[in-house]
Amino acid sequence: MKKLLQNLKRPNTGRSYIPFVDGIRFVAILPVVILHANERFLRYVYGEENLAGANEQISYLISRGAIGVMIFFALSGFVLALPFAKNNFTFSYKKYMSRRLERLEPPYIFWMSLFAIIYLMKSGLGIGEMAGHYFSSIFYVHNIVYADFPVINPVAWSLEVEIQYYLIAPFIAILYFNQKDELLRRLLLSLFLLFFVVYQHVLGFQFQPFRASILGQLQHFLIGLFAADLYVNSKKWISEKSHGHDLLGLISIVIMMFTWTDDLEKSLLFSVALMGFFLSVLKGKFIPQFLSYKWIPIIGGMVYTIYLTHLPLLELVYSFIGRFGYSTTYISGLTISLIIALPIILFSSIIFYSVVERPFMKKYGFQQILEKLRSLVGKSLAKSER
User: Fold this and answer.
1) Does residue 1 have a pLDDT over 60?
2) b/e map of 88-117 (b: 16 or more CB within 10 Å)?
3) Inter-axis angle of helices 67-86 and 214-233, to 10 degrees?
4) Which domain holds residue 58?
5) Cα dihedral sign for 64, 58, 25, 106?
6) Buried b (16+ CB within 10 A) or exposed e, 120-146
7) Deepest of 106, 218, 268, 340, by most Cβ within 10 A of its Cβ?
């Protein structure tokens, strides 16, 4: 088991590893997977029209799992800001983008291409229409072109928002950390967050299609930027851990669940709660230990693969389960189906992560793979000449 966990750990790319970062990824992906599992259970097995009373309320609470996506956005803001917060490196936009292309694009293109082929065979769309959806997704502009979620893999909408922030993150971080007065820059960022959310609602950016863009989500990334500043530049304050901050984290999650709406007041409260969650990670006693515990960051480290593959897998699992019908209550049926579906998602992701994603996580992994391919081709040609 120890050897398996070791093999599944993120490869060391020269950067200091922060276990709670992958722990946060685990916390973010779990409610998203359960949310999508519940949607498929209702669609293929139970029937949403059969929900009533307490079951309807439980299903509503599960639907709040979408807050995991906003946690992902904030975490991206945190991770991308860390090098700039430390201010101990020479920034190169070319290297910055190259790392993205080498590390994240190959798995993304692989899975989107595979799912496009499957969707083409099942949907009956013409090749031309399918090509439009495919290339819009590959170039992260489906939300812009079609003003709707990607049809090939709907969860990819958030990856389009991620890449929009990824393109501008260095400039935001440089602008922010160029202000050397810590108190002033944090005050200015807090005021910007307040006014941005207000004007976001004035201009209607909290609704589709703008909601599925950086215009609808920027505040969440900037909360991560703020947290990175605290983590790097307020170490003495961060070192003062307390169970009070653990409690703050739990309360913040509950608040986020009930304030994830289009209302201005609730959006502002959601942003405060999201910051409260990150403060609990930085200053809590129990929460950072939990997030760093053994297999939790291991699973969190595979989150990119889990995120890309879980929805199609859930479609397959629940469409199969639906053939048998159901003869139990909503809670029992959903619980049993999760006992079946979650291990399938996990074990499939372990295989997919090891084979498709992990090779590109090593430093210069893309070049190494190309060199190996060239070597294999060269050896094959040499043998054929003999």
Assistant:
1) no
2) eeeeeeeeeeeeeebbbebbbeebbeebbe
3) 50
4) 2-385
5) negative
6) beeeebeeeebebbbebbbebebbeee
7) 218
How far CA 78 is from CA of 39, 70, 178, in Å, comes to 30, 12, 17
pLDDT tens readout for residues 151-188? 999 999 999 999 999 999 999 999 999 999 999 999 99
Average pLDDT, the chain: 89
Name 75's Cβ contacts closer than 8 Å, sequence gap at least 6. 21, 24, 25, 28, 224
**In sequence order, what are the residues at sequence separation of 6 or more whose Cβ sits closer than 8 angstroms to the Cβ of residue 229?**
81, 85, 176, 177, 182, 185, 186
Q: How far apart are CA 129 and CA 335, in angstroms?
A: 38
Predicted confidence at residue 261, as pLDDT, reads 87
User: How many residues does the structure list for the chain?
Assistant: 386
**Could you report the per-residue pLDDT of 250-290, keeping only the tens digit for each?**
999 999 999 988 899 999 999 999 999 999 999 999 999 99
26 HSE (CA, 13 A, CB side): 20
* Residue 218 burial by Cβ neighbours in a 10 Å radius (0-12, 13-18, 19+): buried
Contacts of 362 (CB under 8 A, 6+ apart): 11, 13, 368
Coil, helix or strand for 147? coil
To 5 degrees, how large is the angle CA 101–CA 103–CA 104? 75
For residues 331 and 107, give the distance between their C-alpha atoms in angstroms, rounded to a whole number.
35
| CB distance 241 to 283 below 8 Å | yes
DSSP string, 161-221: HHHHHHHHHHHHHHHHHT---HHHHHHHHHHHHHHHHHHHHHTTTTSTTGGGSHHHHHHHH
Say whether pLDDT at 126 is over 50. yes
How many domains, in total, are found in the chain? 1
